[in-house]
Design goal:
The structure is a single chain. With about 260 residues, this protein is an alpha+beta fold. It has one domain. About 15% of the residues lie in helices and about 40% in strands. The chain contains four helices and 14 strands. The protein has an eleven-stranded mixed sheet with strand order 10-11-12-13-1-2-5-7-8-9-14. A three-stranded mixed sheet has the order 3-4-6. Strand 12 and strand 13 form a beta hairpin. InterPro entries: DUF1365 (IPR010775). This is DUF1365 domain-containing protein. Pfam families: DUF1365. It comes from Massilia eurypsychrophila.
């Protein structure tokens, strides 16, 4: 139970869609169905959802491993609290929702995970974006405007991390995050647009879905409807890279990663 007597938030399995639309220099778009987790880290503590087909820190059809996130060893809430404190965000003392893909039969690759950090009154205070590329590198973008992030508000960050060899490491990102209720289900949308240094749109991406508490029935639907989904994420990345190469999109060599692992 929460201190106000309400029910504690439950870990969610969300079904939705991933969309990419490249605008320039060559048009290329794709969308595919997907699912992901949304986990209330403070409410969960060290517990795992009571679900026969889902596990925390051990093998199952779907699983979540704490070591896949944060620094791989520090408890997740302690890690995010310390990172926020180092960056001067001292009032994100409410729930922290981590949105990420689960391990599927033990395998996962998360191109981006989102840490939604709230104040005690429930207002969204900051979002940490954990971005990874297929070269084994990662970078954190901390989105913080000094106050509450209103539902659907736009917040920008300068691009400093190499993700795709078909885009240079310059320009900026525009982020928007939205939450709403659709009946008893919670709908979420994370949208990221990439612009060049002149402010011209290059790429639109989004992850959307509708969540409900994790149950064995929902896990079975996810696993058998979208088998080996996380392996498919990596496969799709390389298939789209091949399509861009065949379209003769300019190729940019991989630069050294930024020394500062967190940028704002």
């Amino acid at each position: 139970m929460r201190p106000d007597g309400g029910a504690a938030p439950a870990p969610q399995l969300c079904f939705g869609q991933v969309r990419h639309k490249r605008v320039r220099p060559v048009a290329n778009a794709f969308a595919y169905r997907a699912y992901y987790l949304r986990l209330p880290l403070r409410a969960m503590g060290t517990a795992s959802p009571r679900c026969a087909l889902f596990a925390r820190n051990r093998f199952n059809l779907l699983s979540f491993h704490d070591a896949d996130h944060g620094d791989g060893s520090t408890p997740l809430t302690a890690w995010i609290d310390a990172l926020l404190a180092r960056e001067g965000v001292l009032d994100a003392d409410g729930e922290v929702w981590l949105q990420a893909m689960p391990r599927v039969l033990g395998y996962v690759f998360n191109p981006v995970s989102f840490w939604f950090c709230h104040r005690a009154d429930g207002a969204l205070r900051a979002v940490l974006c954990d971005v990874r590329n297929t070269f084994g590198e990662r970078h954190f973008y901390l989105l913080d405007n000094g106050g509450d992030l209103a539902n659907g508000a736009e917040i920008s960050a300068r691009k400093v991390f190499h993700v795709s060899p078909f885009f240079p490491v310059d320009g900026s990102y525009r982020f928007r995050f939205m939450r709403s209720m659709r009946g008893a289900a919670e709908a979420t949308l994370a949208r990221i647009d990439h612009e060049d240094t002149a402010g011209e749109l290059l790429l639109q991406t989004s992850v959307s879905g509708s969540g409900a508490p994790i149950t064995s029935a929902r896990v079975a639907i996810a696993f058998f409807t979208y088998p080996l989904m996380t392996i498919g994420v990596v496969a799709r990345i390389h298939i789209q890279a091949l399509r861009l190469w065949l379209k003769r999109v300019p190729f940019h060599s991989q630069p050294a990663p930024p020394q500062n692992k967190v940028t704002r």
